[in-house]
Design a protein that fits this description.
about 350 residues, alpha+beta
Length: about 350
């Protein structure tokens, strides 16, 4: 490299030279593809080195065809897109596993506490019985009338009944708590987790089909969550944003008796027993509530001076004959991505392709 030559301009000139060799000249689209696989791809942390190498080999093999046509460019871009989207289910799977691990750890802690409390209750009962036994032996050894033991026995039975009743109530509360831990998302409680959502969908779809009742689903996703929130403010603030969104959705669900859950990542689901047009109306109400919410993040231990405003894209789908749970959510997801591709911060209802 010559003296005084800045590295980045030189690299770009070299890449442009390579593009000219295959007849692409200084076409910005081809330049962007080459810069992506040569320079930007190595910065991605969601791909391992072997995956990065595979994509690079694919792109370079396509460039070796020396076909600068627009059709070839579009075919290459579709290949890159498939590479990226094929990897997303693995990322989602890791997120789901992490969420389930957190839930399992929380459940294990609660069960341990439950067992310790049960042991403590058993010890309390042993103390009551032991004390009565000692008092009985003292009474008999002292020559007292055994009849005096009757009121003491009654007192013991009463004490034990009170103790059992209080213990039963505590066990019921603990059982409800364990059930909630199993059903809710550990980060976005009280929203339900993915497993609970799948169970609810199976039951709701069966009931809707049996009674010919309407059923709709909303797929709700934070706009630009990674680039505008996580990358700027950090994952802690990102989690707080998701918790804020979860509270807004849970409040809406609670007013109408609907089912809210975390589908994965920053995607949330609301299942409601109304038709699609009504669901679209409620989805827009949720969207506006989020848009107007002023979220003050806590940064370095104190509240920020300026609020973070964020928006959501919402896809709505109404259950139709032949749909199972996967197709039902898939329709809502497709409608949500329609919003993403048309500007975000909006609501769209799924429309099945016409035959």
């Amino acid at each position: 490299m010559g003296t005084g030559c800045q590295e980045t301009p030189c690299e770009i000139r070299n890449i442009c030279g390579e593009l000219q060799k295959i007849g692409c000249g200084n076409d910005a689209s081809w330049l962007a593809v080459l810069l992506f696989v040569r320079n930007l791809l190595r910065q991605f942390t969601i791909f391992d080195d072997s995956r990065k190498k595979s994509l690079q080999e694919y792109v370079f093999s396509e460039l070796a065809r020396r076909d600068p046509s627009e059709a070839h460019l579009q075919r290459l871009l579709r290949g890159v897109e498939l590479f990226l989207t094929d990897h997303l289910p693995m990322v989602a799977m890791r997120e789901q596993l992490a969420s389930e691990q957190a839930a399992s750890e929380s459940l294990a802690r609660s069960i341990t506490d439950f067992l310790e409390e049960t042991l403590s209750s058993e010890q309390e009962r042993s103390k009551l019985v032991g004390r009565f036994g000692r008092e009985t032996m003292d009474t008999l050894a002292g020559g007292e009338d055994p009849a005096v033991m009757i009121p003491r026995l009654r007192q013991l039975i009463t004490s034990m009944l009170v103790h059992y009743r209080e213990e039963a109530q505590a066990w019921e509360r603990k059982a409800q708590q364990l059930e909630r831990i199993i059903q809710v998302d550990p980060l976005l409680a009280p929203l339900h987790n993915r497993r609970s959502l799948e169970e609810h969908l199976r039951a709701s779809i069966a009931r809707a089909k049996a009674t010919d009742a309407p059923l709709s689903a909303m797929m709700i996703d934070v706009d630009n969550f990674k680039t505008a929130i996580n990358d700027v403010y950090g994952h802690v603030v990102g989690d707080d944003v998701l918790r804020t969104l979860a509270k807004i959705i849970d409040a809406h669900a609670g007013r109408h008796g609907w089912f809210a859950a975390r589908f994965g990542g920053d995607e949330l689901v609301l299942v409601c027993d109304i038709d699609g047009s009504q669901a679209q109306f409620h989805a827009d109400a949720i969207r506006l509530a989020v848009q107007h919410y002023e979220f003050l993040p806590r940064i370095d231990g104190r509240l920020a001076d300026e609020p973070i405003r964020f928006t959501v894209s919402i896809g709505v789908a109404e259950l139709t004959p032949g749909m199972d749970a996967e197709a039902f959510l898939g329709a809502a997801d497709a409608a949500m991505y329609q919003v993403k591709h048309s500007g975000r911060n909006n609501v769209a209802q799924f429309e099945a392709p016409r035959a």
